[in-house]
Amino acid sequence: MSRLKLFLPVFIFLVLALMLWRGLYLDPRTLPSVLIDKPLPDFTLPTIERGDHLVSKMDLPDEPFLLNVWGSYCLPCLQENPILMAAKEQGVVPIIGVNYKDKINLAEMWLEDNGSPFDFSIVDEDGRLGINLGVYGAPETFVVDANGVIRYKHIGVIDYQSWQEDIMPAIAAVKAEAAN
Amino acid sequence: MRYLSVMANSCRNKLCSRFDIARRFIRGQARSCGTQTRRLGHNLVLALLLMFAAVSTHAAVDAFEFETDEQQQRFRTLSNDFRCPMCQNTNLTGSGGGVAEDLRREIYFMIIDGKTNYEIEQFMLERYGDFIFYRPRLMAETVLLWFGPLIFLLLGAWVIAGIIRRARPQVQESAALSDAEQERLRKLLEKIDKQD
């Protein structure tokens, strides 16, 4: 027993080392979203494209789609734009934008300059829809299923790798479900 | 050189360092200690002024008007206890981030609407998860977080108690003499007395 006690510091060290080792590979920037498998929040907001017409959850596609939170001030949004444009051209899924805490004229200019991958962009000027979506900064991208339930959330820029490895599989899974 | 050391000694009480004086001495612009202390005083006043300036700009951030002091107090406590999801290591009060600003506004409206603290906490929890709480809730996952320090304290106390318990018998053995030893000591002392 007393001999086992001698190994106590080594044991404590091993436990600590294991925990810290694991901690090295955790990204503190990626918060687990509590909204996965929850329906999208309600909203009634204008869009960039449709003038005075207000949209709500009823206007969203009744098939799986991407909800992309963006802003003209947001450099990573510009970075991921070509990938979203390609997805639109290939007709992967409809993409709906949430223009988060932006100025509408700047957003319009941004879409003109860079091209719009969005069917339409919901204008969330005061960031309230963003709060209800648990957004804490653009860009964030949600994979929503045919029933309007959030199934996957990607935080930060979508690069080619995350598109291939995270988002496409999530879309494929939701689409397969919708087909059944 | 002697001048330098004299000055340094007389200055020490007045909070100016030997280094400062040496530097000034070398530059040939030695001033009296009084000036240096007075300058220190000026800097202190300036620092204090800046401190208050910082406080007043901070207060200007909260441009919300409350009906009662109690509401304002609740607003302060709540925004202090929620973490900013964007800037991560600051609370909502201290964060200049866009989300923090929006969340403070939401808290304000919920307080004005008569929502309880519990309802406001639930609102945050439903959207941002446990991360939002600077004071983690007591759950299975956070038991170690809450009581870990206590466990370590008890562990430490146990180790210290063990050390003391082991050390005490040795002290007693070495200090106290047995009856036989006591007798021997008495005889030896008597012998010394007789020799004198």
Briefly say what this structure is.
Chain A has six helices and seven strands; from the N terminus they run ααβββαβαβαββα. With 180 residues, chain A is of the alpha/beta class.
The average pLDDT score of chain A comes to 91
- Main beta sheet of chain B: none
Q: What is the CATH class name of chain A?
A: Alpha Beta
Named CATH architecture of chain A: 3-Layer(aba) Sandwich
Radius of gyration of chain B: 34 Å
- Order of helical and strand elements of chain B: HHHHHHHH
Distance between the termini of chain B: 63 Å
* Count of spatially separate domains of chain B: 3
In one word, what is the shape of chain A?
elongated
**What level of helicity do the residues of chain A show?**
40-55%
The portion of residues forming beta strands of chain B comes to under 5%
Mean pLDDT metric of chain B: 75
* Largest interface pair: A-B, 19 and 15 residues
Q: At the third CATH level, what is the topology name of the largest domain in chain B?
A: Helicase, Ruva Protein, domain 3
Q: What is the 3D shape of chain B?
A: elongated
Number of domains of chain A: 1
Strand content of chain A: 15-25%
Spans of at least 5 consecutive residues with low confidence of chain B: 1-37, 55-60
Task: Determine the number of helices of chain B (DSSP H or I, runs of at least 4 residues).
Answer: 8
